[in-house]
DNA sequence: GTGAAAGCGCTAACAC
DNA sequence: GTGTTAGCGCTTTCAC
């Protein structure tokens, strides 16, 4: 259907192998035949079939990425970071959504593997049923886990300091005088969410403040989950004076719940979110967040993957990136208090 | 390296061809050998190599998508819509960013084509140099253009009623008493942006209001461009009383410029944006926007692509989706005025 | 229904 | 430096 190397070889008057060498840039070809082949290729509009090349060479120059939801700005940035990082080496990203569902994730991994991706980057929704990931890794393809830590696994991971970041945010709230702080968690089965809850607890412990279990509410992956959870917190008889939301969509939901009740931020309820988001510094009031180096997560995963593809056989890497507390105005911190 | 059909065939005690038929679900296989093959495959953990299959069958079950910027929520939703639509038929999305640059776009198209995608969906940054797209289409692979109309081309397109939508938004502003309305355009070379400007003009014309050319400012693809452009408008000696922003990132930028100047919306400056965005209805004040059916754009493109892949040889389709004016509070419209 | 054999477009030995 | 010859893992005739 399309032109093949053989067509170009014929047009250039050389053998198929020589044409392949000239086109592929490997082996040795005389300047003369090189030119002839390249000219013929250009003239006829030849397009290389990477598939055929991959079938024999064993590399598709394609990396698979599985995210929970591409519409989540966090993942969008991860995609961007990964794409930018691997693109410079000629790789392209095959994308799949899991909708935070382990079964769909396994399907996605399968779909990507069957397309022979060189490696896989996945923000897994799994906690224990890692079989689809271990078998993928066992097949010899590097698998890099992002965002959600996997302490006892042999996978390379790129994560952020969830516990430390969360603890810092909650400590900030406590420092501002809050002692009843509600937390809207993500799905607690997701390790990053669990770690953020750990940070919440640690900050309380270190400040010598007890935790009212009723102030810990389980959200979920979507904005609506966050809205519901934050709403439940705000509707308590003795509501918290501050909210800590465990993900950007949870923050969206909390914002929505707060607005729906006509509450003023930070006077009536303070708010800190984990993960920065577009407009966070533009809306009124600007929202204080624990900012994650989102692009960098994707970039580091891409770089690590590239290293693995380059033959790095070292022990599992656990890259942990730092978060930054971006103090804006949603907690009532005065300019002077911003360290 | 990985298991092949031949391995399974051997394990099942049948020929490679029979195993392939059982595994591929084509041709005719007896119930007995079928079972044997499938069992062996499951037991050994066989994974089909789609590449090899694609090489002979001619379909990779992969569609290419080129967007300007995956971090733009508009494109993120398009990706989601497309992925969901094609996934049900077993296709996967190969994603590439163009950064709104025609050269990078051409590279992206090349990268996707060489990976033998079955079809291409692209939000092209091109206006006249369509060669990379026409040659792609000429190669027999369906190419669907989204978001940006291409009136004189032979491509299938999925767009929205840009002019109508923009005109409606501006008419809304005029109806509220505004006569000095600034517009922050996207790159005017992009057809959708040009159409939105046309809508802006038409609304003025139909209302019998003259346009001050100084009120038309060119933005760009990013938030920063919008901020700069909106800022220029606001800093005019005789600034507009209302702003119409031509894209969501332009709206972000305008919001930022407005906040930086401490202006109140809508009292000191009204605002309508083209394209809805997360939090638009949650921030204060909620922002009036021309909402596009974003998921549907991707979905329709996916469905159309699937139809083309299914053999539909009909004339170029031009699907134009409707926008909706979401009246919120950023223009000062009273509840009563909301039709 | 099943097997043998050819071939998709390419890379990679291996001779010359 | 260049051509010949094998495959990569699969689908697809074509006999049987």
Put simply, the count of helices of chain A is 12
Q: Could you report the average pLDDT of chain A, rounded to the nearest whole number?
A: 94
User: Radius of gyration of chain A, rounded?
Assistant: 25 Å
Q: Spell out the helices and strands of chain A N to C.
A: HHHHEHEHEHEEHEHEHEHEEHEE
Helix content of chain A: 40-55%
Strand order of the largest sheet of chain A: 2-1-3-4-5-11
Q: Give the overall silhouette of chain A.
A: elongated
Tell me the number of strands of chain A: 12
Biggest sheet of chain A, in brief? 6 strands, parallel
Oligomerization category of the chains in this entry:
homodimer
Q: List the uncertain runs of chain A.
A: 335-339
Q: Approximately what portion of the residues of chain A adopt beta-strand conformation?
A: 15-25%
The separation of the N and C termini of chain A measures 66 Å
The most extensive interface, with participating residues per chain, is: A-B, 52 and 52 residues
Classification by helices and strands of chain A? alpha/beta
Describe the overall structure:
The structure is a homodimer of 339-residue chains. Helices cover 43% and strands 16% of the residues of chain A. With 339 residues, chain A is an alpha/beta fold. A 6-stranded parallel beta sheet of chain A has the order 2-1-3-4-5-11, with helices on both faces. In chain A, strands 7-6-8-9-10-12 form a 6-stranded mixed beta sheet, with helices on both faces. At the A-B interface, helix 4, helix 5, strand 2, helix 6 and helix 11 of A face helix 4, helix 5, strand 2, helix 6 and helix 11 of B. The structure holds a DNA duplex (16 and 16 nucleotides).
């Amino acid at each position: 259907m399309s032109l093949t190397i053989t067509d170009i070889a014929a047009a250039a008057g050389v053998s198929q192998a020589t044409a392949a060498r000239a086109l592929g840039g490997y082996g040795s070809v005389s300047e003369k035949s090189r030119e002839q082949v390249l000219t013929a290729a250009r003239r006829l509009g030849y397009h290389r079939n990477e598939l055929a090349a991959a079938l024999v060479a064993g590399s598709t120059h394609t990396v698979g990425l599985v995210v929970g939801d591409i519409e989540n700005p966090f993942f969008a940035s991860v995609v961007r970071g990964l794409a930018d990082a691997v693109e410079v080496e000629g790789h392209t990203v095959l994308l799949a959504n899991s909708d935070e569902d382990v079964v769909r994730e396994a399907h996605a991994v399968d779909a990507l593997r069957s397309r022979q991706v060189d490696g896989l980057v996945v923000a897994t929704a799994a906690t224990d049923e890692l079989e689809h990931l271990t078998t993928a890794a066992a097949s010899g393809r590097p698998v890099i886990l992002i965002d959600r830590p996997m302490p006892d696994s042999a996978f390379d991971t790129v994560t952020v300091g969830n516990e430390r970041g969360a603890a810092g945010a909650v400590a900030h709230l406590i420092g501002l005088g809050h002692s009843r702080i509600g937390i809207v968690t993500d799905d607690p089965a997701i390790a990053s969410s669990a770690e953020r809850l750990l940070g919440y607890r640690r900050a309380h412990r270190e400040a010598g403040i007890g935790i009212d279990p009723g102030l810990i509410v389980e959200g979920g992956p979507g904005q609506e989950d966050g809205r519901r959870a934050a709403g439940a917190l705000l509707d308590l008889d003795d509501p918290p004076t501050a909210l800590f939301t465990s993900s950007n969509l949870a923050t969206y939901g909390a914002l929505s719940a707060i607005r729906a009740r006509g509450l003023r931020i930070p006077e009536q309820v303070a708010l800190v979110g984990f993960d920065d988001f577009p407009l966070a510094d533009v809306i009124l009031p600007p929202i204080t967040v624990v900012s994650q180096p989102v692009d960098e997560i994707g970039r580091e995963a891409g770089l690590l993957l590239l290293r693995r593809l380059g033959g790095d056989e070292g022990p599992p890497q656990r890259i942990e990136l730092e978060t930054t507390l971006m103090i804006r105005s949603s907690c009532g911190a005065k300019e002077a208090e911003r360290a």
